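Action item from last meeting closed. Structure (369 res):
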């Protein structure tokens, strides 16, 4: 006797609702995260940014200064169904010591407000960095592991993590659901507009100006940086790791280093970068880009006009002090990413291929010729 096909239908479980709040939504990290959340298709997304999006998006954006506690409470308390908070906001200051107070305050305002507003909150994901280990100060123990102690204060990454750990432990509803995680990437690279602390745009603008001046693509950093081991993290790769941390129970209340998964020396990939820009690769010629690129705005504007590029202010396309910092690291910069893989996140990519892909995306979006 034929079976009734209806008897074989299995009751489908309802999809678990996921609604993300992304703080710092239009930076290099936040932009890639929102695009990845939208690509996955099962997320609602609300972004916090003081700018409006420059790309097509289905997400909702709030213009909000996280330093303003009252504004945070007024605009965020209505978000009663946020399940995941991704915190990648940052406000720079003129010195490292001055970073701590405002960046800690922004995190506190955001997390405390959402802890009160949303009974649905499941996870808070925090972005830190390798400066936790003192990678910006000089030689440090490598490869750095997550349980290595931080350098001497001040360090706002340390203050943020300690506060989040303590707040989670003390929050009245902590046992009812939400947990946290932290990721420590290094030199995040990706496509973003008006985010000058992006090594990809610094490299591209430097290369194109050198090319226009008829120069080879010389390495502008220090000899030690040319030879030392370095690492970077693709923003798309980071976005996938952030979502994994926020949704996999193996990541609950854990800290992970995150990079592309490889190490390189600038001298070994410099030729690949030069090849993309159709330039002859040069050797080391140390110049402070902060000084030598200061007078290049007219030349860059001429290039933009000549090739019909997007009109991005020169001051907002590349942060030369940041480039000088990266190319001035005359010591190995290496973190151990084994913990992340042991806990279940296995994706990786080659850094030289990442640079080429990002440069191509800049070209397609008419940011560079």
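Sequence:
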């Amino acid at each position: 006797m034929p079976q009734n096909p209806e008897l074989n239908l299995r009751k489908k479980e309802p999809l678990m609702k996921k609604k993300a709040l992304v703080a710092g939504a239009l930076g290099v990290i936040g932009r890639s995260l929102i695009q990845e959340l939208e690509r996955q298709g099962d997320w609602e997304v609300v972004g916090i940014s003081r700018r409006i999006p420059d790309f097509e998006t289905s997400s909702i954006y709030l213009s909000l200064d996280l330093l303003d506690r009252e504004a945070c409470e007024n605009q965020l308390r209505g978000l009663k169904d946020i399940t995941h908070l991704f915190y990648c906001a940052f406000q720079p200051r003129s010195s490292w010591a001055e970073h701590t107070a405002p960046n800690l305050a922004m995190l506190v305002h955001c997390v405390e407000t959402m802890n009160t507003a949303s009974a649905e909150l499941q996870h808070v994901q925090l972005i830190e960095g390798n400066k936790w280990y003192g990678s910006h100060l000089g030689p440090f123990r490598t490869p750095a592991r997550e349980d290595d102690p931080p350098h001497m204060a001040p360090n706002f990454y340390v203050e943020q993590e300690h506060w989040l750990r303590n707040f989670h432990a003390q929050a009245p509803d902590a046992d009812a659901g939400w947990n946290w995680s932290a990721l420590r990437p290094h030199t995040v690279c990706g496509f973003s507009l008006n985010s000058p602390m992006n090594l990809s745009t610094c490299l591209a603008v430097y290369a194109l100006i050198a090319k226009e001046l008829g120069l080879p693509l010389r390495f502008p950093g220090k000899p030690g940086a040319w030879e030392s081991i370095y690492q970077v993290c693709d923003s798309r790769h980071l976005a996938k790791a952030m979502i994994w941390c926020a949704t996999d129970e193996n990541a609950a209340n854990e800290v992970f280093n995150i990079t592309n998964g490889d190490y390189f020396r600038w001298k070994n990939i410099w030729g690949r970068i030069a090849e993309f820009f159709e330039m002859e690769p040069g050797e080391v010629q140390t110049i402070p880009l902060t000084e030598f690129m200061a007078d290049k705005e007219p030349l860059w504007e001429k290039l933009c006009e000549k090739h019909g590029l997007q009109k991005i202010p020169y001051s907002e396309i590349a942060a030369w002090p940041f480039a000088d910092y990266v190319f001035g690291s005359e010591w190995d910069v290496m973190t151990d990413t084994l913990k992340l893989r042991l806990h279940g996140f296995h994706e990786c990519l080659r850094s030289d291929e990442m640079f080429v892909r990002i440069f191509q995306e800049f070209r397609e979006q008419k940011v560079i010729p």
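Note appended to the action item: Confidence is low (pLDDT under 50) at residues 1-15.
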